[in-house]
Write a structure and sequence with these properties.
By secondary structure, the protein is mainly beta. The chain has one domain: Jelly Rolls (Sandwich), CATH 2.60.120.560. It contains two helices and 17 strands. A hairpin with a 2-residue loop joins β3 and β4. The radius of gyration is 21 Å and the shape is globular.
Length: 271
């Protein structure tokens, strides 16, 4: 059976339009940081109420979010986190970080050249004043100590949570990635791909360095939490993203996210 040429032309044109439509619907990168202020972010620092940016810990200069302790005095375990204002579930997040300046000498020694990105975190507004860490999963950032020993970055830490690693529920608090060691104050590009409560991927400077799955509430490390929030065994399919402050000055920039929500869920949410 032969089709008229004009029908074939219409079919090809329709196919082309569909392809263009699909291309236009491809999720785009969206910046979470406007380069000017942190008005779209929420501060929570241990020993302080949600929203109190004690010591001007989190500040903006030259389109960089800076974490500093020059107004602290004694660190006093005032671990802090800067949360983006809304939760996410399925996404690809990327940012750049660099360690700078001198470590706060009254902070615990393990915090030297140590920071991180929290994800699937509880809402900071559900944290009591004296809760130290958010119930969350952390993509941990480390730098070399200049001693020639390996110190990978892009690791996984789990305050108040567990993950499934290599097919088994793993209660280890921190699991090292396969990344190389980065010394000094160089910018490092970190990427996090989160597929709800399924697969999680850590990427450092373009290399996949760690994968695991099924983040869920459970385990220690978090203290003075609201028991109604810490429901052990509950799968974490969404939550807040936060930049960490734990005693080491650090800079963050180019914080962008791309929505990876499955099309059927995205359509249902729009209806």
């Amino acid at each position: 059976m032969k089709f008229p040429l004009r029908l074939l032309a219409f079919a090809f044109a329709a196919t082309g339009l569909a392809s263009c439509s699909q291309a236009q619907e491809e999720p785009k990168w969206v910046s979470l940081f406007n380069g000017t202020d942190i008005n779209d972010w929420i501060v929570k620092i241990h020993h302080h109420e949600t929203g109190e940016n004690f010591g001007n810990t989190f500040r903006v200069e030259d389109s960089i979010i800076q974490v500093r302790y020059d107004q602290y005095g004694d660190f006093n375990n005032q671990y802090g986190h800067l949360y983006y204002k809304q939760p996410f579930s399925h996404y690809h997040l990327k940012l750049e970080y660099r360690f700078v300046g001198e470590w706060c000498k009254t902070a615990p020694s393990y915090t030297i050249l140590n920071s991180g990105l929290m994800y699937h975190s509880q809402d900071p507004r559900t944290m009591p004043k004296e809760q130290d860490w958010p119930i969350s999963v952390e993509m941990q950032f480390l730098a070399g100590l200049g001693d020639g020993q390996p110190r990978p970055t892009g690791n996984m830490c789990s305050p108040g949570t567990h993950i499934v690693y290599k097919g088994k529920l793993d209660s280890t608090h921190c699991i090292n990635s396969s990344s190389k060691t980065y010394e000094g104050d160089q910018w490092v590009k970190a990427e996090l791909i989160v597929l709800g409560d399924s697969l999680i991927t850590h990427i450092i400077n373009g290399d996949t360095v760690l994968q695991y799955s099924q983040p869920q509430i459970g385990g220690p490390v978090v203290n003075n939490f609201d028991p109604a929030i810490k429901v052990d065994g509950k799968k974490l399919s969404s939550g807040f993203i936060a930049l960490q402050s734990e005693g080491q000055p650090i800079d963050f920039r180019r914080i962008e996210i791309r929505d990876l929500t499955p099309e059927n869920k995205r359509t249902a949410a729009a209806q």
